[in-house]
Design a protein that fits this description.
Length: 177
C-alpha cells in the first residue's frame, strides 16, 4: 500500500487539544455570564419584592391615618392604633405593631378597644421591618411620621413618610381604653 505524503485523514493530537481548550474557555465564559445573570435576577427580584411590600405598608398607613379621627402610639412607638372613618358613615378600629422584625396589622369593624397583647395573631404586612412611628406634637398627633426599614434577603428599602389625620367622627366610641 502506497500512502501519499499530503493525505490527511484526521486531526492531530495538538489540534484536538486546542479545540478542547477553546471549547472549555467558551463554556467557562458562558458559565460566568449565566452566574452573573442569575445573581442580578435574584437581586432584582428581591429589590422589587421589598419595594412592593414597602408600597403596601406606606399605602396602608397613609390611607388609614389620613382618614383617621384619632390615633394613639404605644410601646415606644412600635404600636399604632387608629380610629378610621370607613365609607360615608362607618368607623373601624385599626392597629399596626412592629414585633420581632414583623409588621402586623389588625382591624375590627366595631368601635371598642383592640387587643394589642397578641399581635402575633394579626395579619402580617411584611417581615424584616425595623423602625418606629412618631407623632407630632405628641403620641396622639395630629401628624404621624414613620421611619421604617424593610429588608428582604440582601435588599434594604426605606419606608418613610408622614401623614396628617383629617377625618372628624362625631358620636362614636373609642378604639382604646
Amino acid at each position: 500500500m502506497n500512502r501519499r505524503a499530503d493525505d490527511e485523514t484526521g486531526i492531530t493530537l495538538v489540534e484536538l487539544i486546542i479545540y478542547v481548550l477553546l471549547a472549555a474557555l467558551f463554556l467557562g465564559l458562558m458559565a460566568i455570564l449565566f452566574a452573573n445573570g442569575w445573581r442580578s435576577q435574584t437581586a432584582t427580584t428581591e429589590r422589587d419584592s421589598a419595594t412592593g411590600r414597602a408600597a403596601v405598608i406606606s399605602n396602608s398607613l397613609q390611607t388609614s391615618i389620613r382618614n383617621a379621627d384619632s390615633f394613639l402610639l404605644e410601646a415606644g412607638g412600635t404600636v399604632l392604633r387608629a380610629k378610621v372613618a370607613v365609607g360615608s358613615s362607618g368607623v373601624e378600629c385599626r392597629a399596626w405593631a412592629i414585633v420581632g422584625g414583623n409588621l402586623t396589622y389588625t382591624s375590627t369593624p366595631t368601635i371598642g378597644p383592640l387587643d394589642i397583647t397578641s399581635p402575633a395573631t394579626w395579619t402580617p404586612l411584611a417581615e424584616g421591618v425595623t423602625g418606629t412611628f412618631a407623632a407630632t406634637p405628641a403620641a396622639t398627633g395630629p401628624r404621624l411620621d414613620y421611619n421604617l426599614t424593610l429588608t428582604v434577603a440582601d435588599q434594604t428599602v426605606p419606608v418613610a413618610g408622614g401623614v396628617t389625620r383629617q377625618a372628624k367622627i362625631e358620636g362614636e366610641g373609642s378604639c382604646w381604653p
